[in-house]
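Reminder to self: tokens first, then the designed residues, so the page reads top to bottom the way the pipeline ran.
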């Protein structure tokens, strides 16, 4: 196995054990803003992941959601860590959350490991080596039209009144077979990679939300771009991920709605 991927997988499983053990216990919850919450489990998981990465790769940079990393300026290799993607779900006992660990080389995702610890679902990928679900190869869906597709999106927990995504959600609901909103972008990207979803879009995601999922979708045969169709880079403003076959339709809708929103 790719040594970077082997490390990411081992560390994700260790962090997942923390989250799995904490899942049924009373949660210690704090708020980073009016509605953006964080649990002690986030912090414990992040401490473990960051300490393991620093021990194994002392020359690498780390960007972690709760701020315990050491930044990414000028680094060839940078790990992007979400110690608990889907914190709101976790806090409410909804079993849709994950540990997400991605490695970026010179700005390009090259390794990803995402684990849903409740269901024991491990998704892994390394550049040029394919994508896997519990060590079995996976591929994006063969669905060829948006009208037959199940797609997903997400909404921000803060500045919700300023989010225009409800306009895009409306259009995709009308034009697809259905739209899901599960509250964990990393797992949404895993679902695209293994064919559960045919497409996903979201605005304002952070690099730790998407670094691992981006390489998973690409290695599973899918596409991940920005609104202009350029390759997506973790942390960019708009992400569109799909099986590739419906990508053009998704981009057309997002471009058209963006024009309407700009005129409103």
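Designed residues (264 positions):
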């Amino acid at each position: 196995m790719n040594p970077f991927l082997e490390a990411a997988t081992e560390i994700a499983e260790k962090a997942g054990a923390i989250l799995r053990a904490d899942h049924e216990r009373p949660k210690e919850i704090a708020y980073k803003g009016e509605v953006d919450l964080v649990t002690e489990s986030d912090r414990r998981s992040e401490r473990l992941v960051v300490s393991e990465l620093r021990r194994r790769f002392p020359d690498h940079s780390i960007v972690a959601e709760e701020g315990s990393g050491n930044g990414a300026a000028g680094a060839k290799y940078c790990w992007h860590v979400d110690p608990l993607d889907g914190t709101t779900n976790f806090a409410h006992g909804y079993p849709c959350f994950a540990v997400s660990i991605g490695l970026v080389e010179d700005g390009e995702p090259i390794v990803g490991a995402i684990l849903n610890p409740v269901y024991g679902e491990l998704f892994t990928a390394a550049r040029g080596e394919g994508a896997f679900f519990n060590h079995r190869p996976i591929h994006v869906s063969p669905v060829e039209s948006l009208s037959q597709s199940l797609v997903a999106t997400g909404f921000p927990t803060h500045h919700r009144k300023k989010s225009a995504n409800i306009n895009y959600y409306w259009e995709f609901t009308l034009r697809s077979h259905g739209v899901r909103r599960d509250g964990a972008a990393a797992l949404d990207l895993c679902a695209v990679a293994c064919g559960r979803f045919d497409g996903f879009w979201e605005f304002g995601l952070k690099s730790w939300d998407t670094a691992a999922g981006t390489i998973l979708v690409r290695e599973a045969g899918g596409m991940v771009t920005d609104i202009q169709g350029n390759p997506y880079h973790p942390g960019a403003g708009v992400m569109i991920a799909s099986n590739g076959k419906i990508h053009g339709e998704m981009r057309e809708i997002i471009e058209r709605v963006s024009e309407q929103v700009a005129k409103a």
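The mean pLDDT is 91.
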